[in-house]
From TrEMBL:
Residues 261-286 are annotated as: Disordered. InterPro entries: DNA_mismatch_repair_MutS, DNA_mismatch_repair_MutS-lik_N, DNA_mismatch_repair_MutS/MSH, DNA_mismatch_repair_MutS_C, DNA_mismatch_repair_MutS_clamp, DNA_mismatch_repair_MutS_core, DNA_mismatch_repair_MutS_N, DNA_mismatch_repair_MutS_sf. PROSITE patterns: DNA_MISMATCH_REPAIR_2. GO terms for molecular function: ATP binding; ATP-dependent DNA damage sensor activity; damaged DNA binding; mismatched DNA binding. The lineage of its organism: Archaea, Methanobacteriati, Methanobacteriota, Stenosarchaea group, Halobacteria. GO terms for biological process: mismatch repair. The gene is mutS. Belongs to the DNA mismatch repair MutS family. ATP binds at residues 662-669. Keywords: ATP-binding, DNA damage, DNA repair, DNA-binding, Nucleotide-binding. This protein is involved in the repair of mismatches in DNA. It is possible that it carries out the mismatch recognition step. This protein has a weak ATPase activity. This is DNA mismatch repair protein MutS. Residues 736-752 form the DNA mismatch repair proteins mutS family domain. SMART domains: MUTSac (SM00534), MUTSd (SM00533).
Length: 901
C-alpha cells in the first residue's frame, strides 16, 4: 500500500495515546484510506508521516515535524489560501484528496476542534473551475453488470453511466457486448470510474483511475431508489437492471465525493450494517444531494456512428497523430471556432457522437447553411456569445451553494445577452434555428431579481457586506440608515465640539483598537469639558471619548454587523431562488451551446470553402453505402499545407473495395483518412471540405493503420495488428467504412501478402464493407481485377532528371513503381548513395520492383560477376518501395559493407 494513504503505521500503533488532534487525523486517514487527507490546522492543510514525506517531495514544500508525548511525526502543510494549485498537483500525481476542514470555530469548543471531510477531490469529480478544462467535459463513469434488455431472453449485459459533476451532464447506455462498452468508454474518455462487483475493469483504458466503492451502492434495489430520488421511476427511464445499477452507484459516488460524512457508504463494518437496514442511499445524504442533476439521458450506442479507440486516434478527432504534432492538428482543432465554453463542449460532444439519422443530420446542415449565408448574423452571434459565461458550471455552483455574488452577476450578464441573440435569429427560417430562438429563454424574472438584489460590482467575499443593492430590503436599508446617521453625527461632531470648546485644533478620529476619539493637543487641555473621558495619552495630545460618542459608536458597529448578516441572509435567499430555476438555466445553456456550435460550423464552412453534403436515404444504396465526393480535401492537412490537391472518391455497392497503390509519400494515407473524415464531418452536421459530396450515413468506421505507420500508438507488434483486424472482420458489415493502411507489414513479405489477400477476399465476398485498402503488395491490384466489386486506384508520380515530382493526384488503375530511392533524394540523402542505390534497384527490379520478378536480375552483379548469395537474398527481401529515406540509407550502407567483405 502507498505509504501516503491510510492511517500512518507509526500512529496506528499508539492510537489511544495520541493527542486528540492527532487521533482525529489518524481516524480520518483510516476512514478515507483511498485518499491523501488534507487536515486543517488554522491557516494550513497539514499532512503527516508518509503523506507528509510524499507531499513535501511532490509539492516542493517544507518537511517539518510535530511532536507529542508519543513521538515525533513528519509534517508538511500547504497554505489554505493557495490550496487548489497544490491539490491539482496531487491529482496529477494520481492521488485522490480528502479535504478535512475545521467545522467549528476554535473558540467555540473546550476540547479539540471538530474536523470533517467536506469534499473529496478526485480526477472524475472535480467542480473547481481552476482544475477543469473549460471546453471539454470531465466525466466520471460507473460500470455495472446486470440483467439486460438488449437480448432476448434477457441475459447479463454491461452498462456504462457517465456523469460530469461540474455541468450535470448525465448519460447511460448498455450493451450485450463488453467491447461495445469499451468503445463507448473511449468515446467519452472518463477520468475516473467506479466499477461494480461483477463488472470487468478491463473495458477501461489505462489512464482512467479506477476507484473502489461500496459494492452495496450497486445493489439493484438500492440503486433504483437512488435513481428514483432524482429522476423518478428508474424503470421508465432506463433500459435494464445493469443501467439502473450503474446510474444509482454513480449518483451515490458523486454524493460521497461531494463530501460530508456518509455513514454506511464507507467506514467500518458496524456502520455498514446499520445502514444496510435503510437501503435508501440518497435518503441518508440529504445534505449532499446534487440538485442540479436534473436530467439523465439514456442512449443506445447504435444511434451514433461508432468509432472505437483506434478510429478516434487514427482519424485525429481529438489527439494529433504525430507524436510531436501540432496540438491543433486535429479535427476538433480545425472545427472549433466556438465563442464560449458551452459551445466548445457541445461541439466536442457532436464530434464524439456523429449522427446516423438523415433527418437529424440535415436539421444541422439546414442551420449551418442558413448561418453560412448571412455573415452579419453569424458574426453578431459570435460576438454576443463571447459574453456568455459557462452557465452549466455556474448554475452547478449556485446550486451547490458555492457561488458568490460575482457568479450571480455573471449569470445576469449572460442573461442580458439573450434578448439580443433572439433578435439575431428573428428572421431565422429553418426549423432548428427557429426552435433555438424559442429555446433562448431570457429568464427575465431571474435577471430582474439579480439586478434588483445584487450590486453591479460586488466583492468576492459573501459575508462582509457590500453585496446587496439599496432599496432591495427595508430592514437592510434601515440598518444601513442607522449606521449612516451615526457616522454623519460623528462627522458633524468635530465642528460641534470645536464650537463648544473653542478649541480650533480639536479633531475627531478613529483607530481600530480604541474606536472613535476626540483629540485635544496639550496646550488646549484646559478647555476639555466635564463629560470627556480620557482614553489615551500621546506625546503632544490626549484622546478622549464621551458617553454619547461611545453610544453612537456601538450603534454604528452593531448596525453594520447586523447589516452584514442581513446581507448574507438575503444573498443566500437570492442564490436559492436562482437555484430553483436550475432546469430553465440548463435549458438555456443548452440552447446557447447549440447555437455556438452551429455558428462555429458555419464560420468554418464559410472561411474554408466547405460544401453542404447531400445525405442519402439509408435505403437508397440498397443496404450498402454510396459515397460520392468531388474535389475532397483533408480537413487537417489542408490547413498546414501551402497547397493541397483535391481528390474525389466514388464508392457504391458495385464499387466498394478500392486497392490503392503508389510510392511512399504520394498521399495514400492522407487520401483514405480524408474520405473517412469527410463522411464523419457530414454526420456530425458539419459542411465538408469538398466541391460536392453525396453520401449514405455510415454506421461504423474502422481503421487499421499498419504497424510501421502507427507512430503515435507505439504499439508495433504484429499481434496487435492481427487482433484489430480480427475485430474488423468480425464486426464490420455492409454499412461500415473500413480503412486499411499498409496492413500486413509486421511479418515477412510472403506472409504479409497472403494475409492481405485473404483479408481482401473476405471483406469483398463475406463482409461487404466499403473498404479503402492502401497497400505495397502489388499482387493485390491483380486480385482487385478479379473481384467484381473491387477496383484499383493509384497515385502517380513524375520523374524528371531523376527527381520525383509528387502530384498527389488519385488516378484509376494500379501504380507501376515505388520510387523509394527518389524519395531518398528528395530527403537529402547524399548523391553518391542515391546513385549507387539506383544502380542496385535497376538490377534488382527490371520492370517492377516487386521481389518475385526480380529474382533472376538480383543475382547479376553490376561488375559482371555473380552477386554473393547472402547479399542477393537480402536485396530480394528488401521492400524498396516502402523504406523510409533513413532506413534506405542505413540499409544501403549495410549492403555495401556486406559486399566489401
Ligand atoms: P503515403 O501514405 O502515400 O506515404 P501520405 O498520405 O502520408 O503518403 O502523404 C505524404 C505527405 O504528402 C503528406 O504529409 C502531405 O504533406 C502530402 N500530401 C498528401 N496528400 C496531399 C495532397 N492531396 N495535396 C498536397 N499534399 C499532399
Ligand atoms: Mg501512408
Amino acid at each position: 500500500m502507498d505509504p501516503a494513504l491510510g492511517p500512518p503505521d507509526a500512529m496506528a500503533e499508539k492510537r489511544d495515546e495520541l493527542t486528540p488532534m492527532m487521533r482525529q487525523y489518524h481516524d480520518l486517514c483510516a476512514r478515507y484510506d483511498e485518499a491523501i487527507v488534507l487536515f486543517q490546522v488554522g491557516d494550513f492543510y497539514e499532512t503527516f508521516c508518509g503523506a507528509a514525506e510524499r507531499s513535501a517531495r511532490l509539492l516542493e514544500i517544507a518537511l517539518t515535524s510535530r511532536e507529542d508525548s508519543t513521538g515525533e511525526y513528519p509534517m508538511a502543510g500547504i497554505p489554505i489560501d493557495n490550496a487548489e494549485s497544490y491539490i491539482e498537483e496531487l491529482l496529477e500525481a494520481g492521488y485522490r484528496v480528502a479535504v478535512a476542514d475545521q467545522v467549528e470555530e476554535p473558540g467555540e469548543t473546550s476540547g479539540v476542534v471538530e474536523r470533517a471531510v467536506t469534499r473529496i477531490v478526485t480526477p472524475g469529480t472535480l467542480t473547481e473551475d481552476e482544475l477543469l478544462a473549460s471546453d471539454d467535459n470531465n466525466f466520471v463513469a460507473a460500470i455495472a453488470r446486470g440483467r439486460g434488455a438488449n437480448t432476448r431472453p434477457a441475459a447479463d449485459e454491461l452498462a456504462l453511466a457517465l456523469l460530469d459533476v461540474s455541468t450535470g451532464d448525465f448519460l447511460a447506455t448498455s450493451s450485450a457486448s463488453d467491447e461495445a462498452i469499451a468503445d463507448e468508454v473511449s468515446r467519452f474518455g472518463p477520468a475516473e470510474a467506479v466499477v461494480g462487483p461483477d463488472a470487468p475493469a478491463d473495458v477501461l483504458p489505462e489512464e482512467c483511475m479506477v476507484t473502489p466503492f461500496d459494492d452495496r451502492a450497486f445493489d439493484r434495489d438500492r440503486a433504483g431508489e437512488t435513481v428514483s430520488s432524482y429522476f423518478g421511476d428508474p424503470d421508465a427511464l432506463l433500459a435494464s437492471d445493469a443501467e439502473i445499477r450503474a446510474c444509482g452507484a454513480l449518483l451515490a459516488y458523486a454524493e460521497y465525493a461531494r463530501g460530508g460524512e456518509h455513514e454506511g457508504e464507507r467506514g467500518d463494518g458496524t456502520e455498514r450494517d446499520e445502514a444496510a437496514d435503510s437501503p435508501v442511499a440518497a435518503g441518508e445524504s440529504q445534505g449532499d444531494r446534487l440538485e442540479y442533476l436534473t436530467h439523465l439521458t439514456r442512449y443506445d450506442p447504435r444511434e451514433y456512428l461508432l468509432l472505437d479507440a483506434v478510429a478516434l486516434r487514427s482519424l485525429e478527432l481529438f489527439e494529433p497523430r504525430a507524436v510531436r504534432g501540432r496540438e491543433d492538428a486535429t479535427l476538433v482543432g480545425v472545427l472549433d471556432e466556438t465563442a464560449c465554453a458551452l459551445g466548445g463542449r457541445k461541439l466536442r460532444d457532436w464530434l464524439r457522437r456523429p449522427l446516423l439519422e438523415p433527418r437529424r443530420i440535415e436539421a444541422r446542415h439546414d442551420a449551418v447553411e442558413e448561418l453560412t449565408g448571412s455573415v452579419q448574423t453569424r458574426e453578431h452571434c459570435h460576438e454576443l456569445l463571447r459574453d456568455v459565461y459557462d452557465l452549466e458550471r455556474l448554475i452547478g455552483r449556485i446550486s451547490r451553494e458555492r457561488a458568490n455574488a460575482r457568479d450571480l452577476r455573471s449569470l445576469r450578464d449572460t442573461l442580458a445577452v439573450v434578448p439580443e441573440l433572439r433578435d439575431q435569429l428573428a428572421d431565422a427560417d429553418c426549423d432548428r434555428l427557429t426552435a433555438l430562438r424559442d429555446e433562448l429563454d431570457p429568464l427575465a424574472d431571474v435577471r430582474d431579481l439579480i439586478d434588483d438584489a445584487i450590486v453591479a460590482d460586488p466583492p468576492i467575499e459573501i459575508t462582509e457586506g457590500g453585496i446587496v443593492a439599496e432599496d432591495y430590503d427595508a430592514d437592510l436599508d434601515d440598518l444601513r440608515g442607522t449606521a449612516r446617521d451615526g457616522k454623519q453625527w460623528i462627522d458633524d461632531l468635530e465642528a460641534r465640539e470645536r464650537e463648544r470648546t473653542g478649541v480650533d485644533s480639536l479633531k475627531v478620529g478613529y483607530n481600530s483598537v480604541h474606536g472613535y476619539y476626540i483629540e485635544v493637543t496639550n496646550p488646549n487641555l484646559d478647555a476639555v469639558p466635564e463629560n470627556y473621558q480620557r482614553r489615551q495619552t500621546l506625546k503632544n495630545s490626549e484622546r478622549f471619548v464621551t458617553p454619547e460618542l461611545k453610544e453612537r459608536e456601538d450603534e454604528i458597529v452593531g448596525a453594520e454587523e447586523r447589516a452584514d448578516e442581513r446581507e448574507y441572509e438575503l444573498f443566500c435567499d437570492v442564490r436559492r431562488t436562482v437555484a430553483d430555476e436550475v432546469e430553465r438555466v440548463q435549458r438555456l445553456a443548452d440552447a446557447l451551446a447549440t447555437l455556438d456550435a452551429l455558428v462555429s460550423l458555419a464560420t468554418v464552412a464559410a472561411q474554408y470553402d466547405y460544401c453542404r453534403p447531400e445525405i442519402l436515404d439509408r435505403e437508397a444504396a440498397d443496404g450498402g453505402l454510396e459515397i460520392d465526393i468531388e474535389g475532397g480535401r483533408h480537413p487537417v492537412v489542408e490547413r498546414t499545407q501551402e497547397s493541397f490537391v483535391p481528390n474525389g472518391a466514388r464508392l457504391s455497392p458495385e464499387r466498394r473495395l478500392a486497392v490503392i497503390t503508389g510510392p511512399n509519400m504520394s498521399g495514400k494515407s492522407t487520401y483514405m483518412r480524408q474520405v473517412a473524415q469527410i463522411v464523419l464531418l457530414a454526420q456530425v452536421g458539419s459542411f465538408v471540405p469538398a466541391e460536392s459530396a453525396r453520401l449514405t450515413p455510415v454506421d461504423r468506421i474502422f481503421t487499421r493503420v499498419g504497424a510501421s505507420d502507427d507512430i503515435a500508438g507505439g504499439r508495433s507488434t504484429f499481434m496487435v495488428e492481427m487482433d484489430e483486424l480480427a475485430t474488423i472482420l468480425r464486426d464490420a458489415d455492409e454499412r461500415s467504412l473500413v480503412l486499411l493502411d499498409e496492413v500486413g507489414r509486421g511479418t515477412s513479405t510472403a506472409d504479409g501478402l497472403a494475409i492481405a489477400q485473404a483479408i481482401t477476399e473476405h471483406l469483398h465476398d463475406e463482409v461487404g464493407a466499403t473498404t479503402l485498402f492502401a497497400t505495397h503488395h502489388h499482387p493485390l491490384t491483380e486480385l482487385a481485377d478479379d473481384l467484381p466489386a473491387a477496383f484499383t486506384l493509384h497515385f502517380a508520380v513524375d520523374q524528371t532528371d531523376g527527381e520525383v515530382v509528387f502530384h498527389h493526384e488519385i488516378e484509376p488503375g494500379a501504380a507501376t513503381g515505388s520510387y523509394g530511392v527518389e524519395v531518398a533524394t528528395a530527403a537529402g540523402v547524399p548523391e553518391a548513395v542515391v546513385d549507387r542505390s539506383r544502380e542496385l534497384v535497376e538490377q534488382a527490379t527490371p520492370a517492377e520492383n516487386d521481389a518475385p520478378t526480380a529474382d533472376a536480375a538480383a543475382t547479376q552483379y553490376a561488375d559482371g560477376g555473380e552477386l554473393p548469395a547472402d547479399v542477393a537474398a537480402e536485396l530480394r527481401a528488401l521492400d524498396v518501395g516502402h523504406l523510409t529515406p533513413v532506413d534506405a540509407l542505413t540499409e544501403l550502407d549495410r549492403l555495401q559493407r556486406l559486399l566489401e567483405e
